[in-house]
Protein: dUTP diphosphatase
Amino acid sequence: MQIKVLDPRLQHWGLPAYQTAGAAAVDLFACIDAPLRIAPQTPAVLVRSGIALSFGDFSFAALVLPRSGAGHKRGLVMGNTVGLIDPDYTGEILISAWNRNGPGTDPIVIEPGERIAQMIFVPVVRPDFTVVTEFSEQTARGAGGFGSTGG
Structure:
């Protein structure tokens, strides 16, 4: 995979890298020029990551997720819950940041160079679809959903 560094500050802050031998995702940095205040429950804002990717392979994609600590401790989550980066997209990776905290709480302040999200790579399966009037195989469950298994 090729990475294009769009913000030279990343050379100092750090390029996306796995922080431990078992890490599943790489951190993304907030490439902003000044602290960014996000008030609770206001619309999500797009934060530049300073990088673009060229996958070179359409059999996988990337997902942008909140960092566990930032989401749990601070309420900083993704405005779109999960950001999907298609393998044919080569523009800058943008992070949709949202303050999920309730009204009356303090804004979340994101500092320039702060690690605010993480990106994981996942395989993509693209089946061919065949239109049918009835399925050739039935399951014991059938079409039941939304609590149909007793949960």
Observations:
- The radius of gyration is 19 Å.
- Strands lie at 2-5, 26-29, 36-38, 45-54, 60-66, 76-78, 83-85, 92-99, 108-110, 115-123.
